[in-house]
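Students often ask what a holo structure prediction actually looks like on paper. The answer is less mysterious than it sounds. You provide the chain, you provide the ligand, and the output is a string of discrete structure tokens encoding the 3D arrangement of the protein together with 3-acetylpyridine adenine dinucleotide.
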Amino acid sequence: MSARTEVDARANRIGDVDAVVVGAGFAGLYAVHKLRSLGLTVQGVEAADGVGGTWFWNRYPGARCDVESVDYSYSFSRELEQEWDWSEKYATQPEILAYIDHVADRFDLRDRFLFGTRVTSAELDEDTLRWEVRTDRGDVLSARYCIFATGALSTANMPNIPGRESFTGDTHHTGHWPHEGVDFTGRRVGIIGTGSSGIQSIPVIAEQADHLYVFQRSANYSVPAGNEMWDDEMRRAIKAGYDERRRLSRESGGGSPYNAHPKSALEVSEEERRDAYETRWKLGGVLFAKTFPDQTKTEAANATAREFAENKIRRLVDDPAVADKLIPNDHPIGTKRIVTDTHYFETYNRPNVTLVDLKAAPIESITPSGITTADADYGLDTLVFATGFDAMTGALDRMRIVGRDGVSLAEYWSEGPKTYLGVGVPGFPNLFVVTGPGSPSVLANMVLGAEQHVDWIADCIEHLWEKDYDAVEASVPATEQWVEHCRELAAQTLFPLANSWYMGANIPGKPRVFMPYIGGFGAYGRICADVAEEGFRGFEFS
Ligand code: N01
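The corresponding structure tokens follow.
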């Protein structure tokens, strides 16, 4: 029986709890564990039929994490660290989901969740300062605290291409991949999108499909993962080194135990620069963006990294005309998330793969039998949308979250998300966002980020109890200052130049604002700790 069927059979949950946690991904599971350990009554609610969050949904072929498995794992339990064996450097989606399933069972978290159940609204009762939370299954919960662990990349973006619904073949979005998998054998497959999801799945689909057409609007930078299988000796070394790895990660810019070369890219000799890039390239993946500290800060430094990456792409792709199209020319390298790939560029050397350049000839429509661009018709049996997400705010905006004076979160954020520390929002007392906009979030290791946020939220709730307060709320001045601080930090970088999902640029009509905090994971952690130490400076208590 699926969780959804069980939900249909269950009675609606109606009643009072201390906290509602929305989402059963890494963040939500840890929030339930942590708050329960403080003695709170907690109700988790999860739209999916199981735990895992992004790793529950994104089952497309080739899906892996671009943070090393050993780092992209919980640090709150030494026993868990020691008992779990990662099999490779960059874990696949099934292995990460198995890990999350293990955590849910080991810490007995599953029965705290309503699965197959979507929160539709959360409304503040201004008299009692409690939240009334409603779900699509008819549950009505009253909670003192609402913790939104709804993920930064959880709301799939389906572009409104004319004729989309008319296609008579199979259609899939990478973010909602069927559990039973998709067989591409003998099929003419089209894939729209060359972000991380597209670039990870393209080589695997190409191996199966009769022909794969890649519909690329913008080329993307990608660095090979350099993946490795771990043997027992390596696993022993990893387990012995966890403490130091975590310490370095917490102090780092991105939540992994790596720091940039100590000098500017322009300060070093050409040879030293090339060696540094080569070392990072071999290390694999997204960390290439942080080889030098100024790499995403000045165009001149960035140009050196671009040149290095371009040469690599040219060496990997046989046809120079195809290589030209695969080299990005519209954004500084690293200002869109660099993809971590496995044999991506080489895939274009296969005879059964065609790169369709949508900059040269845009899609005009999707037809019953395929895709029509400005200069050709492509007959397709299967269409894959690797078109990304309404990032960081999408999941929150889609719920009706109503705070003081009847103002909804979507209204309050209509010109871009405004938070204090990415965790609190003025007018929304006792509502906490985990790894929300205004925190390092997607720019850092999301698992350590979630732990840091949840621990901080738990400390804040304990502070409320100690002082005998009912509610905590981000103040307007502290929020305005924080939003401005985040904006200033972003303006000192090249990130605002890219039409990225960090900027909301991938969603028509979304305000163009750089959403995460870019001051670094370590710096952010220190700010949060200072705020807490100073009696939660910038928050108001009632
Ligand atoms: O989504 P994306 P994603 N017509 O937004 C194209 C994380 N992640 O799912 O760039 C044609 O990056 C769009 O084109 P353009 C990771 O943080 C991590 O791939 O807008 N094309 C783009 O090419 C990542 O950054 C992992 O011109 C259209 C693509 O679709 C984030 O999730 C794996 C279009 C969307 O790329 C998002 O990645 C997967 C249209 N109408 C994801 N609309 C790992 O851990 C959109 N596109 C490795």
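The chain has a mean pLDDT of 96.
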